[in-house]
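Lecture notes, continued. The same structure-token format from the folding unit now serves as the input rather than the output. Read the line below as a description of shape only.
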């Protein structure tokens, strides 16, 4: 039996997701598999965090003569054991695992109140304090006053 290491299509319409699998070369693309060896999610924003591989099982299947497809061969070259992008991939995975920082929401400008309820204390006009009451208030000149 000829074994191929290739991608199995999962996901849904407009949301692709692939599993990297070892399967019989004669089986259909989404058919029965011998073993799942990793995943590929093209919708992840960071390019280097898209692929995950099980290095031990991948080495086993390559050791017994399984042939990778063209795309999987590129993934193995970049992200396999001793690949050219392994360190970058680990850094990208750590960034994805960190929690996202969301800024706090600002205070609302206006909060409507139901009819018959009093407005909260923050919205009611405050009474003048002793300092404000002692300050002289400049009166505006009356309209039509002669100079």
């Amino acid at each position: 039996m000829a074994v191929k290491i290739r991608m199995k299509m999962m996901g849904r319409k407009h949301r692709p997701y692939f599993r990297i699998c070892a399967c019989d070369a004669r089986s259909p693309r989404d058919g029965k598999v011998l073993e799942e060896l990793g995943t590929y999610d093209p919708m992840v924003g960071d390019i280097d965090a898209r692929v995950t591989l099980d290095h031990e099982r991948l080495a086993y299947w390559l050791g017994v003569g399984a042939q990778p497809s063209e795309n999987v061969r590129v993934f193995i070259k970049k992200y396999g054991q001793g690949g050219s992008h392994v360190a970058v991939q680990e850094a990208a995975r750590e960034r994805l695992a960190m929690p996202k920082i969301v800024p706090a929401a600002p205070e609302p400008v206006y909060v409507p109140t139901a009819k018959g309820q009093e407005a909260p204390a923050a919205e009611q006009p405050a009474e003048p304090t002793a300092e404000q009451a002692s300050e002289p208030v400049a009166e505006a000149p009356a309209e039509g006053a002669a100079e």
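Point for the exam: The beta strands are 3-12, 15-24, 35-40, 51-53, 67-68.
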